[in-house]
Amino acid sequence: MTTTIKESANNYISKSMKNITELQSIPTDLVIYQQEIDEDHDFECKYIEVNGIKYRFPDSVLKNLKEILKKKPSLKNFSVTKSGEGKQTQYTVIPLD
Q1: Phi/psi at 16 (nearest 5 deg)?
Q2: Whole domain around residue 68: which residue ranges?
Q3: pTM confidence score
Q4: Residue 95: φ, ψ to 5°
Q5: In a domain, 87, yes or no
Q6: Running DSSP on this structure, what letter comes out for residue 13?
Q7: I want to staple 57 with a disulfide (CB 3.0 to 4.6 A). Which of 43, 46, 66, 74 is the partner?
């Protein structure tokens, strides 16, 4: 089957992970997966999968969520915002219910 560049571009699906901040609501009962990114430097990345799309799940989000769950163990959904770039990125967990 042959396709034009335009058709290929319109049908392109990025293989890279999206950021968890792109989700409006995240259920606390989703499964977290782990993927090795760079075996030479032993770098692994946690992610969740929503509708077949992978979203990176930073450790700092787990740390913040742990503290929220201590105060509200019945939490079912949350969202995440980020500020900064690169190594200066800060994630904020926002309880939604």
Answers
A1: -80, 160
A2: 15-95
A3: 0.76
A4: -65, 140
A5: yes
A6: -
A7: 46
